[in-house]
């Protein structure tokens, strides 16, 4: 079977898989993956299977400069490709669920980011006032009380994100043997990382873990054959998008959701209110809330950087100190040297 046929089959199968979750998202994601495939064919010697992060970033630049797509559309393209390659990693290795058996040398989105392109930062949530603002502890509690069904699983998802500061990509990769309930500790593995980092949680989480692991998880169709904490009836571990859907739906149910800005309207439409909504509350909001609440309660910024898995502490300072209510000036006056 040719690479072209393999690519089209993979894209069509991916669309069918995503369509079960959301028909509109499936169409949009397929459109971006096809656009990337066509870009590779027209502008490079690479294919979907052997392209790398340089190809992805060149594609984002081409979308922005040559095709005049808005930054928000470029970000959706990045999310689409990331989800496509994550799904291929799950099913394409051994050709399950109708996917062709393909070998992908690397996920080209793993080390590529639209944010490195000139002008992309202007429409990010960070630069819209209050766009990446964390939730208060009361709002987190309200969100958890309003999770969609299955409530036991989805409550645990939200509690784990908030108590540990994990990324959604890390949460879906947690295995049962990564959890040490005696120490309230989890070994966290990111995408394609061999060495974990350590996170800890409050002992109150163990009750929710046990309720899921002992009572609810065994009823999931693939549970017996999965090592992961969150298997689903379709596969051995949950998709990252499912985590986002759980949090955003809970936020909507709790009346906490708000649109920060809108992306490019669909083709043929010009109204600004028809573009894809970029919401304030998502899975990353619980990670942000963990970090800010940690600092506000007196936690050390360098410890937080380690807990969040930041390589550069400046990243932690830039993203978390601006929403801290901890009075740094008074802290220096109180604890700083006087000579």
Automatic annotation (TrEMBL):
Database matches in InterPro entries: CB, DNA_brk_join_enz, Integrase-like_cat_sf, Integrase_catalytic, Integrase_recombinase_N, Integrase_SAM-like_N, Tyrosine_recombinase_XerCD
Entry GO MF terms: DNA binding
Domain of life of the native organism: Archaea
Coiled coil segments of this chain: none
Tyr recombinase domain mapped to chain residues: 130-333
Domain Core-binding (CB): 5-89
Biased composition (Basic and acidic residues): 108-136
GO-annotated biological processes: DNA integration; DNA recombination
Keywords: DNA integration, DNA recombination, DNA-binding
Disordered: annotated segments: 96-137
SUPFAM superfamilies the UniProt entry points to: DNA breaking-rejoining enzymes (SSF56349)
PROSITE patterns referenced in this protein's UniProt entry, alphabetically: CB, TYR_RECOMBINASE
Any Pfam family the entry gives: Phage_int_SAM_1
Name the UniProt record assigns to this protein: Integrase
């Amino acid at each position: 079977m040719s690479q072209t046929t393999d690519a089209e089959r993979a894209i069509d199968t991916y669309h069918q898989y995503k369509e079960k979750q959301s028909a509109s998202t499936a169409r949009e994601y397929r459109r971006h993956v096809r656009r990337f495939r066509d870009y590779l064919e027209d502008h490079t010697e690479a294919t979907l299977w052997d392209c790398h992060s340089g190809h992805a970033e060149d594609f984002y630049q081409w979308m922005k400069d040559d095709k005049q797509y808005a930054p928000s559309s470029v970000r959706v393209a990045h999310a689409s490709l990331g989800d496509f390659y994550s799904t291929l990693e799950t099913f394409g290795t051994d050709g399950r669920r109708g996917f062709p058996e393909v070998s992908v040398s690397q996920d080209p989105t793993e080390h590529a980011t639209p944010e490195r392109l000139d002008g992309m930062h202007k429409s990010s949530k960070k630069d819209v006032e209050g766009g990446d603002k964390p939730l208060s502890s009361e709002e987190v509690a309200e969100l958890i009380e309003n999770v969609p069904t299955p409530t036991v699983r989805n409550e645990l998802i939200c509690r784990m994100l908030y108590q540990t500061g994990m990324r959604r990509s890390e949460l879906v990769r947690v295995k049962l043997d990564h959890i040490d309930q005696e120490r309230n500790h989890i070994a966290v593995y990111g995408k394609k990382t061999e060495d974990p980092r350590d996170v800890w949680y409050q002992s109150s989480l163990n009750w929710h873990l046990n309720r899921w692991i002992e009572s609810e998880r065994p009823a999931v169709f693939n549970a017996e054959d999965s090592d992961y904490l969150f298997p689903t009836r379709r596969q051995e571990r949950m998709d990252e998008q499912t985590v986002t859907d759980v949090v955003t739906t809970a936020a909507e149910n709790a009346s906490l959701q708000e649109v920060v800005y809108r992306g490019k309207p669909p083709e043929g439409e010009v109204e600004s209110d028809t573009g894809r909504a970029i919401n304030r509350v998502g899975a990353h909001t619980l990670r942000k809330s963990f970090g800010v609440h940690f600092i506000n309660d007196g936690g050390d910024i360098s410890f937080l950087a380690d807990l969040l898995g930041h390589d550069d502490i400046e990243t932690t300072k830039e993203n978390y100190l601006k929403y801290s209510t901890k009075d740094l000036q008074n802290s220096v006056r109180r604890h700083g040297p006087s000579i």
